[in-house]
Amino acid sequence: MKKFMDIPIVRALRPNQWIKNLILYSAIIFTGELFSPYYFWITTLGFLVFSTLSSSSYLFNDIIDLKLDKLHPVKKNRPLASGKLQLNKAVETAFLLAFFALIAAILISVSFFLVALLFILLHIFYSLLFKKHAVLDILGIAFSFILRAYGGEVLTGYHLPFWLFLTILFVALFVAATKRHAELLRRGANSRPALFQYRDRLLDSYTSMFGSASIIAYSLFTFLEEPPKFSSPTRQFLVTVFPQAIERKWMVITIPFIIYGLMRYAQLAYEGREAEQPEKIVTTDIPLIVSIAGWGILVITILYIL
């Protein structure tokens, strides 16, 4: 597996970043349809489409930044910048991936195709324009997460609760702000044009603002939204033996996991540990993995068992 991941074209596609596209499953998770075969299958198809489009956009970004990446202390090791991947092959692969992904999207549905098209166009404009300008670069990253969540809605027809949608937005803004802060601290403003327009204290305020907003939005979601109800054996037992338990807002107990997760992520970011690669933090830091796993187990238990 490691040898396969070391193939230049595979590395250039950045499959480790496909984890971001798991947000498409939010619509079926929080509406009680996670174990519905049809909705799970259609969402998985959407996940594959978005992952293919993501890889196409990463290749496009590397093509646009080729000259700058060759001068960057870390990015110079990327397949295209290091010369291990030929430019013409990268261009051809990026085009074919986007083309076939959009064909697959329109075969699923016209509305999903429009969301997928907007997703790839956003990434193209991000690489060409948005990432060169402060604020627009952070908003561009956050909007791509919103499109992922909306893509899951379009695929299934199930809508995310308003406060959960806002939580996704604020968490995305939080991650983007910490990413820029880490780049500014570790590489300096020369590593990215937009960083010349940022200041350390400004990014600190962004991190604080979006982190606080994430906790507030998620707390309101857990308290205001009614979870789906199932006639599970556990629920029937609680109705008979302890009916008061059914009436409680059990999702509230997941809030500490969100608070710890954001605090831990911010700690790692301010220590300078791989905050430029959020997906690496999420998949390698044990305390953060335990926090996310604990949150996920609790959510599934509350939504599908209680």
TrEMBL record:
Keywords: Membrane, Transferase, Transmembrane, Transmembrane helix
Principal location: membrane
Entry-linked Gene3D superfamilies: UbiA prenyltransferase (1.10.357.140)
UniProt topology in membrane: Multi-pass membrane protein
Matches recorded under InterPro entries: UbiA_prenyltransferase, UbiA_sf
TM regions (residue ranges): 21-41, 94-122, 134-151, 157-177, 206-224, 250-266, 286-305
Source superkingdom: Bacteria
Compartments it resides in: Membrane
Pfam family for this entry, one: UbiA
GO cellular component: membrane
Gene Ontology molecular-function annotations: transferase activity, transferring alkyl or aryl (other than methyl) groups
Keyword Metal-binding annotated: no
Protein name, entry field: UbiA prenyltransferase
Organism, as annotated: Candidatus Gottesmanbacteria bacterium GW2011_GWA2_43_14
